[in-house]
DNA sequence: TTTTAGATCTCGTTG
DNA sequence: CAACGAGGTCTAAAA
C-alpha cells in the first residue's frame, strides 16, 4: 500500500498514471467535472472520493447514496494530466463513446491499494429457485413433468416448460420477489408463443408475492399463480437433499 | 479530514462509531464477511476498501467492477464492535431485513472525509426527449396535436397521447436509446387500453434505434416507428428555442 | 458483437 | 407504504 499526502499536481498525475493498473487508487480531493455520453451531467465542485480501478472503472462518490455521482464502467481508459497547473483526470470509453473529465483543485491524499479481485457467489437467485423447482415440480402443480429449462421461443426464453398430468404444456415464469405486471405480460407472451408453436398451453407464475395489478391481469389472461417462500423453500429442499443423500448411502 | 494508520481493533471501532455520521469513512483493510437478506453471499477474506457513508450506505469495493462486491443501501445502521479481539463491522437494514457483517482482520488505514452531498442533474433523459417532442410534435408526425403527457391508463402511463390530423388517437412511447421488444409490448398494451377506452388508436414508438426482434414485433402489431437522434434533436430544439425567444422579444 | 433478462438492481415519483 | 418505470442502469450468459 502506497500513500502520498497533499501532492502537487505533477506528482499526483505521475502517481496515478504509474499505478492505475497496479491496484485500486483512492483520491481524496476537491474536484468538479463533467460527464458526456449517452446523457450529460455536470458535477459541481466539492469534496469527493475518486476511485480508479485497474480494470478501468472510475467512480466518484459523495457522502450519500450507494451509486456514484458520476462514473465510467470497466474498460475505460483513465489518464491524469496537468493542464494550466491543475490536475485533470480524463476517463474515456468507446462504444458507447463516453467521457468523464474531472478538474481536481486540491488533493488531500492518494492511496494505492492492491484490492482483491474475488467475485462473490450469490445464492437465492432466480436461477437457484428454478433449479429447485425443476427437482421438485410438484411444488408448482402435482403431476407436473419438466420438459425443459430456459427454453427458447420466438417471444424469449421460458424459465420452465413442463407437461401436466393430462399432457398439456405448462409455461412457468419464476420471480424471486414480488412479481409485477411486467412479469405477467412476459408470461402471457411465452404462453402465446408456445400455444402457437405447439397447439395449447397454460401459464403459471411462481413468485414470492404479486402486485395487485399484476394479479388483476393474471385473472384476465387466465394464468395461474403459485406463491413460494424462497428462503423456506431453500431450507426444505436442502433437508430433502440431505435425506436423499442419506438414503442413497444406505442403499449403497 | 482525519486519518489513522494501522489502528488496533478497539481504536478502529471507536473511530468508526464516533465518526460514522460525520462524513465518509474509508477503511483500507483485509476482511471477509457475509451478506444475508433478499439473497445471500459470502465474501472471501481479502484486501478490500470499505466505504461507510453518513446516510447509512455501506460499500465493499474490490479491484474490479463498478458495483460493490457486497453492500447495504442508504438507511442502514452501521456499527463497529470488537469480538474476540477482532474488529467486526455490522450493517443492519429493516424492510427488507438485510445484514452485512464484515470481520476485519487487519486495518491499514482509516480515513474520515467530509465528502460533498451534491446531487447531479442529468440531461438527455427520456423526460427531456418527451418535453422536446411535446413542444415539437411534428417530429413524430405532421399535424399531430398533443392531448396529454404521462396519461394514466389501466395498462400504465402513456408517454404522450395525441390526436392525428384525422382526429384519431395516437399513443407515443419514447425510448432514449435502443428500443427493445419490451418497449414494443409496452406500447401495444397502451394502444389496446386506449382503443378499449376511447374507440380506436394507433401506436408510434419513438427511439434512437430498435433491436431487430423489436422491429419484427412492431410490424406484427402494426405499430409505427420514428427514429430520432437525441443529441442532434437537443441541439436543434435549443436553437429553435433561442430563435423563438428572439421572436418574442421582437414582438414585444 | 448483439440480444436478452436478472439484479440484494438503485432511485425518484406518485397515489 | 406500495407500485410503477427509468436508468449513462450494471452484469452475466447466450446466440
Explain briefly what this protein structure is.
Chains A, B: This is Endonuclease NucS. The structure is a homodimer of 252-residue chains. Helix content of chain A is 28%, strand content 45%.
Which fold name is given in CATH as the topology of the largest domain in chain A? Trna Endonuclease, Chain: A, domain 1
Instruction: Please outline the major beta sheet of chain A.
Output: 8 strands, antiparallel
Q: What is the number of independent domains of chain A?
A: 2
Cα-to-Cα separation, first versus last residue of chain A: 55 Å
- Largest inter-chain interface? A-B, 59 and 59 residues
Reading the helices and strands of chain A in chain order gives: EHEEEEEEEEHEEEHEHEH
What is the alpha-carbon Rg of chain A in Å? 27 Å
**Estimated share of beta-strand residues of chain A:** 35-45%
CATH class of the largest domain in chain A: Alpha Beta
Contiguous low-pLDDT stretches of chain A (5 residues minimum) are 241-252
Which descriptor suits the 3D outline of chain A?
Answer: elongated
What kind of oligomer do you see? homodimer
State the helicity of chain A in percent bands: 25-40%
Helix count from the secondary structure assignment of chain A? 5
Class from helix and strand fractions of chain A: alpha+beta
Q: Calculate the mean pLDDT score of chain A and round it.
A: 92
Strand segment count of chain A: 14
CATH architecture of the largest domain in chain A: 3-Layer(aba) Sandwich
Question: Helices and strands in order, then pairings?
Answer:
The structure is a homodimer of 252-residue chains.
Chain A (H helix, E strand, L loop, with lengths): L1 E4 L3 H11 L4 E13 L3 E13 L5 E4 L8 E3 L4 E7 L2 E8 L4 E16 L7 E3 L2 H10 L9 E9 L2 E8 L5 E11 L1 H18 L2 E10 L1 H9 L3 E4 L2 H22 L1
Parallel strand pairs in A: 12-13, 13-14
Antiparallel strand pairs in A: 1-8, 2-3, 2-8, 3-4, 4-5, 6-7, 7-8, 10-11, 11-12
Helix pairs in contact in A: 3-4
Chain A binds a DNA duplex (15 and 15 nucleotides) through strand 5, strand 12 and helix 3.
Amino acid at each position: 500500500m502506497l500513500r502520498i499526502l497533499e501532492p502537487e499536481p505533477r506528482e499526483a498525475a505521475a502517481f496515478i498514471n504509474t499505478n492505475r493498473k497496479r491496484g485500486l487508487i483512492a483520491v481524496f480531493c476537491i474536484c468538479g467535472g463533467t460527464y458526456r455520453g449517452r446523457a450529460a451531467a455536470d458535477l459541481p465542485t466539492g469534496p469527493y472520493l475518486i476511485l480508479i480501478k485497474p480494470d478501468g472503472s472510475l467512480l466518484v462518490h459523495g457522502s450519500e447514496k450507494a451509486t456514484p455521482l458520476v462514473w465510467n464502467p470497466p474498460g475505460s481508459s483513465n489518464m491524469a494530466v496537468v493542464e494550466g497547473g491543475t490536475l485533470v483526470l480524463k476517463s474515456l470509453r468507446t462504444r458507447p463513446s463516453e467521457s468523464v473529465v474531472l478538474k481536481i483543485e486540491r488533493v488531500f491524499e492518494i492511496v494505492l491499494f492492491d484490492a482483491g479481485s474475488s467475485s462473490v457467489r450469490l445464492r437465492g437467485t432466480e436461477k437457484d429457485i428454478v433449479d429447485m423447482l425443476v427437482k421438485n415440480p410438484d411444488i408448482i402443480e402435482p403431476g407436473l413433468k419438466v420438459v425443459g429449462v430456459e427454453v427458447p421461443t420466438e417471444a424469449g426464453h421460458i424459465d420452465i416448460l413442463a407437461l401436466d398430468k393430462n399432457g398439456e404444456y405448462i409455461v412457468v415464469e419464476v420471480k424471486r420477489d414480488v412479481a409485477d405486471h411486467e412479469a405477467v405480460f412476459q408470461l402471457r407472451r411465452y404462453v402465446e408463443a408456445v400455444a402457437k408453436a405447439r397447439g395449447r398451453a397454460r401459464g403459471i407464475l411462481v413468485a414470492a408475492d404479486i402486485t395487485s395489478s399484476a394479479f388483476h391481469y393474471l385473472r384476465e389472461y387466465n394464468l395461474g399463480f403459485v406463491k413460494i417462500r424462497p428462503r423456506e423453500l431453500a431450507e426444505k429442499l436442502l433437508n430433502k437433499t440431505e435425506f436423499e443423500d442419506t438414503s442413497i448411502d444406505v442403499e449403497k
